[in-house]
């Protein structure tokens, strides 16, 4: 066992310097992500008891992201990419500080906190995606995302349990609010550490400063369809687990425990897949993730009780990283190909990709809000996920065509 661990460490050390620094930066920041994804939504739910406000918060986040992608493209002409990346990480703590300072969770306050969190995500993901693209190649991207997912999932074992039960140790609204403030302080500290690690890398800014184009290669337009379908799920699934657990199971401690259950198993699966699979296996991985996601949605919709929520979370725990493990390398492979054919900078495609995701996120979150207002919150929580999961299954055929065309174009144009 010790020899195997040494071999895996050796495999990591063989990777380029920037590859390792980027993984380590994201590893540190990974301690923040469960707080942002789960407990901020739980905080809004606890203090407003209104699932629609949670979705409105998420929509303001998703509105801030594409706008910041655009702003990031402009700022890259004047600032080092490491500075913008670090700013994105630290702004997530600023957003939480604003949220905790609100005396009343009205839509205005939630919207402001959401926009700032969206700006944070925009700087973080715009620069992270570009750096991941620039520091990896098609042959080691499965390994990169498998490694990242492994660490994220292991951290998801510790952070939700610790935070969930830490909150439950406090009684009364005042004490619980104090617990959330302490967590926010820790988030700020972690983002500072992640920023320091980021500065150890020798990352360079994109060379081409033109990022906005109106027309793209047909292959890229196909990928935007795939991005829209991915966004459909993102628009709802970031907050749905917190809403379901707070409504049906009721406490943050249970929320943390459910998030952690099965995470070690999921982490090992992701690492093995990332380590030992290649480009030829991405469709199978993607299909497995979508089928598991559809199963999770059906179980939640049919049962809609404590058992249903637990099964939903366990399926989702494996489905989400499977989808990411396949999706990002497919996206980057298409960027590799079309950027060479159209002679454009890679960041132009990262920026444009966000518009496809935003359209999907807006439709996904909008589906929930319409169902909640027109029918009921319960119907929205039960059936919106099923509707989205069925649409998501169409991604398999889209992905197959994209990979086939990308490989053909790469061969014709002699692109590695």
TrEMBL record:
The chain crosses the membrane at residues 21-44, 56-76, 83-102, 108-126, 147-167, 179-202, 223-249, 255-273, 285-304, 310-335, 356-375, 381-399. Keywords: Membrane, Transmembrane, Transmembrane helix. It comes from the Bacteria. Coiled coil: none annotated. This is MFS transporter. It comes from Niastella vici. The lineage of its organism: Bacteria, Pseudomonadati, Bacteroidota, Chitinophagia, Chitinophagales.
């Amino acid at each position: 066992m010790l020899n195997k661990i040494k071999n895996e460490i050796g495999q990591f050390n063989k990777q380029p310097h920037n590859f390792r620094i980027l993984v380590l930066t994201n590893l540190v920041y990974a301690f923040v992500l469960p707080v942002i994804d789960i407990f901020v939504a739980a905080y809004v739910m606890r203090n407003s008891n209104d699932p629609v406000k949670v979705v409105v918060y998420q929509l303001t986040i998703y509105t801030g992201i594409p706008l910041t992608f655009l702003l990031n493209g402009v700022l890259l002409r004047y600032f080092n990419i490491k500075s913008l990346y670090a700013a994105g990480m630290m702004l997530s703590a600023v957003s939480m500080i604003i949220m905790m300072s609100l005396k009343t969770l009205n839509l205005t306050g939630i919207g402001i906190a959401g926009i700032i969190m969206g700006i944070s995500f925009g700087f973080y993901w715009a620069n992270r995606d570009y750096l991941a693209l620039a520091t990896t190649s098609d042959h080691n991207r499965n390994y990169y995302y498998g490694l990242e997912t492994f660490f994220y999932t292991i951290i998801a074992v510790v952070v939700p349990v610790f935070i969930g039960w830490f909150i439950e140790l406090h009684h009364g609204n005042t004490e619980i609010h104090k617990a959330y403030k302490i967590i926010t302080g820790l988030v700020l500290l972690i983002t500072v550490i992640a920023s320091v690690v980021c500065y150890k890398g020798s990352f360079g800014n994109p060379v081409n400063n033109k990022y906005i184009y109106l027309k793209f290669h047909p292959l890229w337009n196909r990928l935007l369809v795939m991005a829209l379908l991915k966004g459909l799920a993102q628009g709802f699934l970031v907050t749905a687990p917190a809403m379901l657990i707070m409504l049906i199971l009721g406490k943050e401690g249970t929320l943390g425990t459910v998030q952690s259950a099965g995470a070690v198993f999921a982490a090992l699966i992701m690492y093995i897949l990332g380590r030992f699979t290649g480009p030829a296996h991405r469709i199978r991985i993607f299909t497995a993730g979508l089928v598991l996601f559809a199963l999770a949605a059906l179980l939640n919709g049919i049962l809609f009780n404590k058992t249903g929520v637990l099964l939903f979370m366990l399926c989702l725990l494996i489905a989400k990283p499977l989808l990411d493990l396949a999706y990002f390398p497919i996206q980057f492979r298409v960027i590799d190909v079309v950027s060479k054919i159209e002679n454009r900078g890679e960041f132009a495609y990262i920026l444009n990709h966000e518009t496809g995701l935003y359209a999907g996120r807006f439709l996904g979150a909008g589906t929930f809000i319409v169902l909640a207002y027109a029918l009921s919150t319960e119907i929205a929580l039960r059936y919106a996920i099923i509707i989205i999961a069925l649409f998501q299954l169409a991604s398999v055929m889209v992905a197959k065509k994209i990979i086939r065309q990308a490989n053909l174009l790469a061969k014709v144009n002699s692109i590695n």
